[in-house]
Design a protein that fits this description.
It is a single chain. This protein is mostly helical. It has one domain. The chain is about 60% helix and about 0% strand. Helix 1 packs across helix 3 (about 55-75). The radius of gyration is 12 Å and the shape is globular.
Length: about 80
Amino acid sequence: MSARTRLTAPITHGRSRPELKGQEAVSQMADDMRVIKTRVGSVTCEDLGMIGWMMVQVDHHHAAARELAERLSLAAA
């Protein structure tokens, strides 16, 4: 079994990912990106889909979420 098939969904803050919108979606997706990158080294759209994100959400929020994830990672370093 590859590392990508062993992904599990990090906990959301009380709502499922398809229900998230706006900044709440960006924040959760950024958190998810950081967790996935830590576990497997990179993040793909398929990774986000495997943990419950809808592709329309990924298309809409991935750029802002990636930017936030990078800022948070730099701040934590």
